[in-house]
Amino acid sequence: MTTLTVTHVPMLDLNAQYLPVEAKVIEAITRVVRSKQFVMGPQVAELEQALSEYCKVPHTIGVSSGTDALVLALMALGIGAGDEVITSPFSFFATAGSIARVGATPVFVDIDPETFNIDASQIEAKITPKTKAIIPVHLFGQMADMDPIMDLATRYNLKVIEDSAQSIGAEYRGRDGVSRRSGSIGNIGCFSFFPSKNLGCCGDGGAVTTTDAALAETLSVLRVHGAKHRYYHELVGGNFRLDTIQAAVLLVKLQELETQHIQRIKNGLLYNDLLAGISELTLPVDRTPGRMIYNQYTLRTKKRDGLMAALNAAKVGNSVYYPVPLHLQDCFASLGHQVGDFPHAESAAREVLSIPIYAELTHEQQVYVSTAIREFFKD
After folding, report:
1. I want to staple 290 with a disulfide (CB 3.0 to 4.6 A). Which of 171, 215, 282, 333 is the partner?
2. E strand or H helix at 131, and its extent?
């Protein structure tokens, strides 16, 4: 028997994830097409109920994208011009961009260099009378340290919006010993179902979660231009609806999510073994008590660009999340930040490199990736 030899490994293999559920996905889409209920069809409500059960939160509202989830959350909490919202400078642009879109000002707090999440110990120093909310980002599948964040929110009467775009199914075990899922701790959780996420649809999609029934009602009304009844608008909202077709796809894929998570965690632990002992390489740290679901497996090295070139030569997919921290983006120049203001975020931006971690990754592929990395650091 001939042994197949790995010659390349993509950063993400959506085909490998999709093919086992292709028949179910096509059947689900076909049902929507035949029903002609393309907008707010019954699959949307069905998905919302399933997501509530999965995230262990009473209310879920499907929305058009993860970015729109953040914008909708801020609108529902009445945050706008003159307000400040504290968040991380090391995240996808949508986190701070959504704050700016509602007219508020993003206020950045540096990250913990091990977890890449906002450093909760630095938040209090940034709170002012204008501060209205904190948006912790649960980056790369690991939740931020929520107990001290919620303590500050209670003390200063602030709202907390969890940016859970990369962390559906991740868990945080608080000091009370209870494990809670991402999106169930703050006032609102915001999720993205972009195709590359652990739970991805066939386009754009997202959701917001909350434990507050009144807030859930406000979110639901804002989602449809602020109208409870057609043509009668109580609020100025937007078109933030989740397409029925995307809800149907997500209902199929949600059934596989726990299996996907378990395999990603196994893959992460295997990488930890295969890459152990390389002095110039820092592996992901699963430090926050709970469950990390490895939306990415992110390495750190001062030789990042050289390692990237070596992996490219070996045809190993890789990606930098994120090369420019948010406080140094041109569009936020008016905030007056300079290089050196948030040294841990800036250092991470220079040193991080993510490698393939998807559930369908084989042992042979992981060995190939790890061998390419070890070969680079031998030189």
Report:
1. 171
2. strand 131-135
Mean pLDDT (whole number) for 51-58: 98
Mean pLDDT of the chain: 96
Residue 287 pLDDT class (50, 70, 90 cuts): confident
Residue 260 in domain: yes
Instruction: Indicate the residue among 254, 278, 300 that finishes a domain.
Output: 254
DSSP-derived secondary structure for 183-250 = TSSSSEEEEE--TTSSS--SS--EEEEES-HHHHHHHHHHHBTTEEETTEESS---B-BPBHHHHHHH
Residue 9 domain-assigned (yes or no): no
Work out the pLDDT band at 4, boundaries 50, 70, 90.
Answer: low
186/201 Cα distance (integer angstroms): 25
CA–CA gap between residue 107 and residue 89 (Å, rounded) = 9
DSSP assignment of 63-114: ES-HHHHHHHHHHHTT--TT-EEEE-SSS-THHHHHHHHTT-EEEE-PBPTT
Residue 284 neighbours by CB distance under 10 Å:
23
Give the span between the Cα atoms of 126 and 149, in whole angstroms: 13
**Number of structural domains in the chain:** 2
Range 172-184 average pLDDT: 96
In Å, the largest CA–CA distance within the chain is: 71
Q: Are residues 187 and 305 in the same domain?
A: no
Neighbouring CB atoms inside 10 A of 233's CB total 14
Answer whether residue 2 shows pLDDT above 80: no
Q: Has residue 3 got a pLDDT over 70?
A: no
pTM equals 0.96
* Residue 40: closest CA among 254, 255, 225, 193: 225
Q: What is the rounded CA–CA span in Å between residue 333 and residue 172?
A: 35
Bridge-based pairing state of the strands 171-173 and 159-163: unpaired
